[in-house]
Write a structure and sequence with these properties.
Strand content: 5-15%
Organism: Klebsiella pneumoniae
CATH architecture of the largest domain: 2-Layer Sandwich
Number of helices: 12
CATH superfamily of the largest domain: PAS domain
GO molecular function, one term: protein kinase activator activity
Radius of gyration: 55 Å
Number of strands: 10
Largest sheet: 5 strands, antiparallel
CATH class of the largest domain: Alpha Beta
Keywords: ATP-binding, Ion channel, Ion transport, Kinase, Membrane, Nucleotide-binding, Phosphoprotein, Signal, Transferase, Transmembrane, Transmembrane helix, Transport, Two-component regulatory system
Helix content: 55-70%
EC number: 2.7.13.3
Catalytic activity: ATP + protein L-histidine = ADP + protein N-phospho-L-histidine
């Protein structure tokens, strides 16, 4: 499901999710802070309530015993005027001495006195003490020591937010909480739409433009690629989209360069085909002309003229054969039909072997052919057949060029190899000469 979403949709989803988490966190913090603030205010406003009640009501008699009648009358009045408070009498050690709770509501008989002492010493509100009606609950309270003739007899312990307050607060909080949730969802939806719009127009706009350019380059002609290649890369290296765009521009430039090289290669190929067609047509026309002359005028030609025409026709046929062989080898090289098979061999021996194939032809044409290898030649790593073909073509072309001349024509083969461990300018050369 996530993989099918676009970039802007993913960004909007992430932003909305973050807003939801932030809204939940803000609501939790707000509710906790509001509860803390309300508890602190209630405790501060009612901090002297226990002391005032003890000053006005004789909760203990002259012997320090609990005055049950006075205590019951006080409980009834408080339940009438302020039902949220709950009164308890504690011993100096925190044991529960008296209460006004209905039967079965008291969950513990002993109260931790550390919060009571902290409250009496003026600690910062809110201070939470044990709730006798809950096994582990803690609530804000008011407390006052009960002294008779200067002796501590116990404590008046008042829970300021009792069971009745909890029930009323729970109903009010449900209504308030639903209101907060609805407003939060509304704000999240609003900010989500704004975030989606910003993501669409600001974040994804460069990506969409780049996607459109690449799509046009893939569907249109080479002109779209060259238009993209002509753009200047942006120097904003910190922007990932700009870096990606620069890489596409570099790729477009490489494709444009390759296209230009292919176009130039195709033009050269067409020129070569035109030239080779002309080179083949000329000797073929000459060959056919002499053969036609021999056919039509055989009775009027002398033996010397026949021999001369046949020699010329043979020479033109050899030219056609030579050009056809070169064209075939070129086609094989261009289409990968020939793969070099590298091996180490002696260049001097190869030259000598090739020269031996031309000895008979050279003698027939009265051309002197001999090999002059100055010093031992190093072994080379190459394809023997390809090097042999190159040397054969060189000697064949030289022989054909000097076939009508007498004398001692010379030709040469030279090669360079970069010495190991030297730079490109420090080279050691070896030269062999075949004359």
């Amino acid at each position: 499901m996530i993989r099918r979403l676009s970039l802007s949709q993913r960004l909007a989803l992430v932003v909305v999710s973050l807003l939801m988490l932030c809204a939940v966190a803000v609501c939790a913090v707000q509710l906790h802070s509001s509860a803390q603030y309300g508890n602190a205010m209630v405790q501060r406003l009612s901090s002297g309530l226990a002391q005032q009640i003890f000053a006005r009501e004789p909760l203990l008699d002259a012997h320090g015993e609990v005055n049950r009648q006075t205590l019951k009358s006080l409980f009834d009045r408080l339940m009438t005027f302020n039902p949220s408070v709950e009164l308890y009498l504690l011993s100096p050690d925190g044991d529960l001495l008296a209460d006004a709770a209905p039967p079965g509501h008291i969950q513990r008989q002993r109260i931790d006195m550390a919060p009571v002492q902290a409250f009496l010493t003026g600690s910062a509100s809110p201070v939470y003490g044990d709730d006798p009606r809950s096994p582990d609950g803690r609530k804000v309270f008011s407390a006052a020591p009960l002294r008779v003739d200067g002796q501590l007899r116990g404590y008046l312990y008042i829970i300021l937010q009792g069971e009745t307050f909890n029930q009323l607060a729970a109903d009010a909080w449900q209504k308030t909480l639903w209101s907060i949730v609805l407003w939060t969802l509304l704000l999240v939806a609003l900010f989500g739409l704004l975030a989606g719009g910003l993501a669409w127009f600001w974040v994804t706009r460069p990506v969409r433009l780049l996607t459109a350019q690449v799509a046009a380059s893939g569907q249109d002609s080479i002109s779209a690629i060259k238009t993209l290649a002509a753009r200047r890369p942006e120097p904003r290296l910190g922007n990932e989209v700009a870096v990606l765009e620069n890489r596409f521009i570099d790729l477009a430039r490489q494709i444009a360069d390759q296209w230009d090289r292919l176009a130039d290669s195709d033009r050269q190929r067409r020129e070569f085909v035109a030239n080779i067609s002309h080179d083949l047509r000329t000797p073929l026309t000459s060959l056919l002309g002499y053969l036609e002359t021999l056919t039509l005028k055989d009775e009027w030609l002398t033996a010397e003229e026949r021999r001369q025409y046949l020699t010329i026709a043979l020479r033109q046929g050899n030219k056609v054969r030579h050009l056809s062989q070169q064209l075939f080898e070129l086609a094989r090289l261009e289409h990968g039909g020939i793969k070099p098979q590298r091996e180490r061999f002696a260049m001097g021996e190869l030259i000598s072997d090739v020269a031996q194939k031309f000895e008979l032809t050279a003698r027939t044409r009265e051309v002197n052919l001999h090999i002059d290898v100055p010093g031992p030649l190093p072994l080379i790593n190459a394809d023997v057949s390809m090097i042999e073909r190159v040397v054969t073509n060189l000697l064949d072309n030289g022989d054909a060029a000097y076939s009508r001349r007498r004398g001692d024509p010379s030709g040469g083969l030279a090669g360079e190899s970069t010495a190991s461990g030297r730079s490109g300018r420090q080279r050691s050369g070896r030269r062999c000469r075949a004359a």
